[in-house]
Backbone:
């Protein structure tokens, strides 16, 4: 049981880090030789705001698994309609937009659920 708790404890942390790196990867499109270095840095920082916010919530979840898990899952669920609407207006495809939403938000929803599960497992079976 101890090993299961450790696995459930570390999977959401690793998954959240990978998901943050994934959404941070989308900010690399701001690098354009036609822009000044300051425009590129400003664009890079602005595009990484969601990743920075998720890093803050990962730190919270690392310390307080229940609270952080709820916040991360809620952000994953709450951001889905906004992301769907933006993608649907670009491509006018429901299925493609749902795929984008699932690809970006599902890792955070799963991560939040795993943080909550880890909290309750450790509460039920102290390590």
Residues:
């Amino acid at each position: 049981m101890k090993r299961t708790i450790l696995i459930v404890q570390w999977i959401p942390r690793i998954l959240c880090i990978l998901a943050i790196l994934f959404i941070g990867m989308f900010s690399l499109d701001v690098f354009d030789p036609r822009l000044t270095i300051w425009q590129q840095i400003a664009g890079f920082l602005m595009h990484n705001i969601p990743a920075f916010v998720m890093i803050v919530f990962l730190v919270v979840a690392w310390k307080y698994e229940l609270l952080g898990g709820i916040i991360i899952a809620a952000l994953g669920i709450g951001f889905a309609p906004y992301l769907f609407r933006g993608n649907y207006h670009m491509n006018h495809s429901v299925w493609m937009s749902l795929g984008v939403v699932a690809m970006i938000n599902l890792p955070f929803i799963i991560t939040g659920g795993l943080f909550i599960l880890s909290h309750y497992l450790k509460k039920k079976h102290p390590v």
